[in-house]
Amino acid sequence: MDHRGRRSDELVYDDLTGPATHLASLIPTLNPYPRASPWTVYDYLRRAELEIEVIAIAAIIVKETSESFRDDWWVYRCRSNEQSPVRTEIIALCALAVAVAVCHDGHRLGSYWVNCIGHGDVKTDDVNACVRRILKKLDYNLLPLCHPHLVEEMIEDFEETTAHLKRCRQQRHHQQFEE
């Protein structure tokens, strides 16, 4: 079950399933927090209604910054004086915010990502802080991550994940009928 009480087999299978699952898998496990939920990332992608290329750039951003988040996430949380846990999916949400800013030459406020896309799962201060951390970790140099070759490779990774999920779903479906 995810944090909204949905069973794992309730994930809607569409064009965003593979990208959401792949993007969630790129987010490092940040102890003591649970692994990022593909269902939550799926919800973010569905609400954001972004082009697959923008989602790919967000995934590239997560991939490039994941080790640094693993190394200092806990230090960040302790310094923030927050007692409430921050969901690790915030990394995907903030990578989407950065990718949109780069691809669409526009900046949407943290409150947009919190209220419209995150539906209150995270706080505006946490989104703003996470976006700043991403930009700092990338030394504000985002253009190399937007190279068409990298974007194409990530889209291929999405397609492989989608194909894998479909195969697994078909196997489960066949096993149910065999029983």
Describe this structure in words.
The structure is a single chain. Helix content is 65%, strand content 0%. The chain is mostly helical and 179 residues long. The longest helix is centred in the C-terminal third of the chain and has 31 residues, at 148-178. The two termini are 24 Å apart. The relative contact order is 0.16.
Q: Write down how many β-strands occur, each being a DSSP E stretch of 2 or more residues.
A: 0
Order of helices and strands: HHHHHHH
Give the DSSP E fraction (strand runs of 2 or more residues).
Answer: under 5%
Helix content: 55-70%
CA distance, first residue to last residue? 24 Å
**Helix/strand/pairing class, anyone?**
mainly alpha
Average pLDDT across residues? 82
Largest sheet: number of strands, sense, barrel closure: none
Number of helices: 7
Spatial extent as radius of gyration: 16 Å
Low-confidence stretches: 1-10
Shape: globular
